[in-house]
Protein 1
Amino acid sequence: MDLDRRQFLGTTGLALTSLGLFTKGLSVSSPGTGPKVGMCDWNLGPPCEPDMIPKAKDAHLQGIQVSVGIQPDSIPLRDPAVRRKYLELGKRYGITFHSVAAGRILNRIPLKSEPQSAVYVIDAVEAAAALGAKNILIAFFGVADLRLRDATGEFRNVSDGPFNSY
């Protein structure tokens, strides 16, 4: 079906109106009107750094996924003072903490093979509870991949379920 410009614009306008885009808007700065927009702390600057919260506000974000830590000998979110600073700055700048990430550390020290990694998961759970986060990122990439490799180094299928195409 060929549409001329007038038909295209009319159809597009009707579609946008039906989605409510003209009346409600998709403004990132409109709290409570739709999904919140956030990002990982490592995209704002150094991970595990509460001083990046004003930068998140400047970017019109509503939330940050906070890293639990990236070095085994330095887990900033274990420190109650760091957690308090996150909460104080979050309140001041209107930023929430929707998720805590135990990603980079678990990708380097895999949960599947390194028993001490269970402690980093506990750190993430405790930090999430302290910050009011409802989600935790536990990553399994690279050496932390849960899939098994065959003798050639290729991943082999270990599932008969819906994810067996990997």
Protein 2
Amino acid sequence: MRRTVLITIALIAVFNLGAQVNTHKLDYKFGAGLGFMGSGDVMAQCFENELTYKINSYFSTSISLGLGRTFKDVQSHNDYMSGSLNLFISPFKNNRRNNFKIGAGYTLINETASYSSYDINYSEGTYNPNFNYLTQMVNGFNVILEDEYMIGSRFLLGGKIFMTGGVEEGGIVSGGMIKVGILL
């Protein structure tokens, strides 16, 4: 009888330990926040969609698509669209409720700027409006600090601080955002 009780307790303990471990490998997160473009003088509204795959208890990788937009006035704005591939390390493991991770990766940014200018001819008393449109593709690398907290068994809430710099062009986008997600 004692042996049966001990085996039953051992089996219950094994099954409970297995139930505590998070078996979800994929999660999807949406983020929104503020960023600074260029040399930090242009503030942008940033949005991001991210799909993360957990490799093991310390490493994960993600692919993300980000959008940003700035309005200086009705006719002037800066936009960017970015695609990133990142690798994260979780120094305190990523199988608990709180997951702090440090990441780095490659980013391809399509940056667009549009603005109006005027050519003024004082002798004739006329001005000619000009609409300027500039676009460039930028290869860059990013550094990310992210902390996510699990709410319940499937939902995530987190914060992210990021800095993306162009290889040849210098700093492009830096900022922070709040993210919500779900385990898939």
Protein 3
Amino acid sequence: MSTILIQTLKINSLIKRLIVGLCLTLLFSHSGYSADPYDRETAIIGIMSRLMFSTNRIDTRIATEMIFNNFMKNIGKKGVFINTDSPQDAVQNMQQHRLDAVITNTLDYLEIDHMISPLHRYSVVIGPSKLQNIILLTRRSDKIENLSQLHRKRLTHPAGFNLGQIFLDVALMKQGLPVAERFFSNSDEVSDLNTAIIDLFFNKTDAALVTDASFGIASELNSQIHHQLEILIISEPIVPLVIGVNKFVPPEFTNRIDKMMSQLDQYPRTIHLLSLFKAKGIERISDQDLLSARMIKQEYNALLSVANGE
């Protein structure tokens, strides 16, 4: 074999070893990165559903991003907000470490609870407590004493108020009545809780599905609302919305959250942003706080099965 051929083979062999070495280096460096997907200063936050019903959808989104961008700044991180189309989508993204936290209404939250750290679930406090009651309001002058009197009447409620709607359906089915969609002549979605109350106050509807906190705020602004409207049915206290941290998020991140939450009064900018949307703070929530929402959902499913002859 000629000297030139031997040298060529040696060079080719060296090139192959270099290529293999480069591939292995890239592979292991990529694996090292994948092994710690949370080694970044940007937190990915999923918004699953409509959150605050005291404002319209656009204002709600603006409020959410303003509050939680400031929240993340307090713990030295940036926040990137993404829409999650469904609870299943959120679960998949959390399993693949592409979602650090979610902000969602309570009904949707129940579908992803198993992916959330039980020590890092929070809710925004709107009104006197972190818990609120779903209520159905009627006018005192109509002298409505039971749900059956509302048959073929008009109902109004904020768009996306899903837990409120199934609570009302449960109350109707327990009295042997059809669900709201078939019971009322109209079930109109409005932009926010206050609009639902005002429509009832001005005779545009016959019943309004809202929360006790929104009724209290509206009554403070106009005392006639409290005098002219009354509560027909009321739920057990529920969590209005949930902020949940992915259970895979490392302590380095959650420790910062815990520290900031314990010192929230030292962050006047955050407190101010919350107050603009009638919120007084953010508090941790427990399994007990979520129990009433779970029971509403379970009761709804059971009653619906019976109604459908299953």
